[in-house]
Amino acid sequence: MSITSQSDVRWSGSNNRSSNRRNSQNRPVSEGIETTYKRSYRDANSIYPPFCRKLELNIPDYIPEGDIEFPFEDIDDIGDENKIRGNWSSRMDYLLSAVGFIFNLGNLWRFPYYCRISGGGSFCFCYIVLMLIAGVPLLLMELALGQFPSVGCLSVWKVVPLFKGIGIAMFMVSCIVCVYYSAVAAWTISYFINSFKFALPWATCSNDWNSMKCSVWNRDSVASCFLQNGTLLRNGSCVIDKEYLSGNSSILEISSFDIDEHVLPSAEYLHNEVLLMSDRFDKVSPINWHLALYLLIAWFIVFLSAFKGVKSSGKAVYVIVIASYMVLFVLFVRFLTLPGSITGLIYFYTPTWKFLADLTVWGTAAGQVFYSLLCCTGGLVTLASYSRFHNNILKDAWILCIVDIITSLFCGALASSAVGFLCYELELPIERFSFKGGAQLIFVYLPEAIAKLPVAPIYSILYFAMIMANITMETIVSAICDEFPERLRRNHRHVLAFSCVIFYALGIPLCAAAGFYWLLLLDYFTTTWTLVLLAFLECMAISWAYGPSFLSSF
């Protein structure tokens, strides 16, 4: 049966606002209950999975929280606007919001690293293939699940209560992602504020937080110092006076940069100044209250952006998403004009075909597909739930997947060109560069490369402004409000405020000295094979409940 040919039936809890419908034999589904029927809508039983109709389950018993409600006007005369829950103001609002959702840390946090260790272009090939054969169908299914019933990731499983645990798992994953994404946003705000200084603090080794291993190496400065027969110090300064050196034994000289012996100033800035990181997992130490303040600012920004619901946030994404892609393009073009960047691109994207026979690479690529799309976190279901009923989700699924592929490749190109330029400046072979992903890439390698650019503070401001726009609370708030519509749907702002306070409190432990280690654990165990497992269970549940023809009608 074609779902798009049915009336716009939505789910919500209600006691008196709707009556029980008649079944296909024109009999009441529940004795003793008055029934009514709207001619403009078709049989309500048709929205149920085939196995439910075969079991002849009664609607009141099947949905204990409430009846089926028809919150839409007659779609033949007026349209399919959701008068109760609201819709996106336009399709462009929805698409840009979805693009902003998938343009997340996953594109820059992991993709360049996986590309580096898994054969370069070979990993890209695996990623694109799995995106087309697994990402598009899964994305289509999640958009359909959200758009048709018009509820969040929890209430959508009322149609198959047996599998509601999948929705709960998606909700929990979304909560955990919000917690540690907000911590990353707090780090970003710290960098963003310090980017307004004339000299970037992570560009030198003359600060209080720097250790004896901190070393600055700039190719042009080193060449100039050696031409003057001077002595280069680890803090980047050049000493010509030999008598000054002989009278000061505490001065540390440097003749070449060794990635194993020396430490980049940007690494020490992240570990010793921003995070106040301990050297042990269980050494909590005091809370970094500067970071806790930045975390509060991050959640306040989230609250303001979602205060008036999707209609206001849908307008904000025009600026946020378009500006983010513009910054990404500007940084890539700037690095592309620098020496060493082409070498980095060639090294990172040259395929090593033997990796195609490694199942681990394919598994890693599958995990990256789900992580970059943030499938099975409830976000896509929530965004689609605000779409109009007859929106073309097949076209949306293809657009979003193609945009995600381009974004991931673009982020990988930015990282590889920046690392290539950094290796050129450090006079270090790119094969010996200890490339790591995650926080090392975003907060060490890229800031270090940006610090070596002319007018570095301007590029730094643009870069960290792009990183900041990565938190969304609408998934969580919508899921809670849709689960308890009578009590909470009209109090959306109160739920949003309460959720922001709760998640701020949950994020404070990540501001501790060992918070960085805990964040890595949350990131690894929440968004790797967990998403793959949830995707498998979700596909099995929908296929068993609706049959193979569920999505073929779109």
From TrEMBL:
It comes from the Eukaryota. GO terms for molecular function: amino acid:sodium symporter activity; L-amino acid transmembrane transporter activity; metal ion binding. It is a multi-pass membrane protein. Keywords: Disulfide bond, Glycoprotein, Membrane, Metal-binding, Sodium, Symport, Transmembrane, Transmembrane helix, Transport. Disulfide bonds join C205-C214. InterPro entries: Na/ntran_symport, SNS_sf. Belongs to the sodium:neurotransmitter symporter (SNF) (TC 2.A.22) family. Pfam families: SNF. This is Transporter. PROSITE patterns: NA_NEUROTRAN_SYMP_1 (PS00610), NA_NEUROTRAN_SYMP_3 (PS50267). GO terms for biological process: amino acid import across plasma membrane. The chain crosses the membrane at residues 94-114, 120-145, 166-193, 287-307, 316-349, 369-386, 398-422, 442-465, 495-520, 526-546. It is found in: Membrane. Residues 1-32 are annotated as: Disordered. Residues 10-27 have a biased composition (Low complexity). Na(+) binds at G100, N107, S372. PANTHER family: SODIUM-DEPENDENT NUTRIENT AMINO ACID TRANSPORTER 1-RELATED (PTHR11616:SF321), SODIUM/CHLORIDE DEPENDENT TRANSPORTER (PTHR11616). GO terms for cellular component: plasma membrane. Its main location: membrane.
